[in-house]
Amino acid sequence: MAAPRPQKHLLLPLLVSLLLAASSPRGADAWGKEGHIMTCKIAERYLSEDAKAAVQELLPASAGGELSTMCPWADTMRFRYHWASPLHYANTPNVCNFKSSRDCHNNKHVQKMCVVGAINNYTAQLLTYGDSPKSSWNLTESLMFLAHFVGDVHQPLHVAFEEDEGGNAIQVHWYRRKANLHHVWDVSIIDTVMKDFYNKDLDTMVNALHMNLTNGWSDDISHWENCENKRATCANDYAIESIGLSCHYAYKDVEQNITLGDDYYFTRYPVVEKRLAQGGIRLAMILNRIFDKKEADTTMPLYVQ
Ligand code: ADE
Ligand code: ZN
Ligand code: ZN
Description:
Bound molecules: adenine, zinc ion
Number of helices: 13
CATH superfamily: P1 Nuclease
Mean pLDDT: 89
CATH topology: P1 Nuclease
Radius of gyration: 20 Å
CATH architecture: Orthogonal Bundle
Low-confidence stretches: 1-28
Strand content: 5-15%
Helix content: 40-55%
């Protein structure tokens, strides 16, 4: 028997919503999937043996032993874990500096409910790994959240202006396609770079970022790993960097309905590449500090701000 045909009055709204979903990138709320996977693939290369072992133990079977496969997970949960939605970003009152006490809260003004608070919170939870009696936190989720949010805090527009929702409310064209500024930084720049330079292949791009880390950026890595408070996760500093990059690169020379093309692309994609690599190095550093038993014996324990 033929399948029942969808009724006409249902078909039209369905078509409209499908078209809207395809044309409006609003609601994408992090580096896209690719950005998160790349950040985590870089992190995986810098994990200590202890951290690797702990990560393997905590990963769900569906991860196939690779942290990177789980790094986009938190975005897929945004509708189920509604409370976690504000944890992906932080907004400033339209100024180019970030202050945790002023800017790290959800829309009910609960403090620490932002990306910086989330990184510190999930780090604190993971520090209970190996406790006896066993930690009461779901450390698998803590790890997947932490890996995701360290990526997010490095996307400049995840620490940006409240007024325009981190660029979500700024409509632009990315070359000939309609987009919003936030989506350009989450997805479009990365997609275009992959197409132009890396044969549309994620692993080729990760290898290139890794080459840069071992050559061009090698002198920078020790700076990236440090912050004023050497025992903290440094999430606050990453947020300060991001709002600076939002102002100097993402928002610069952008207005509603502008078309962004070569001039914007060629001056901004190096920033995106660097932030993906920095996110990876810093995620590895945080996980190494959490799980590295030898280091924990010889240095002060990680202090969470
Ligand atoms: N929603 C509101 N502000 C946001 C931001 N800065 N990043 C992502 N989603 C947001
Ligand atoms: Zn985003
Ligand atoms: Zn996110």
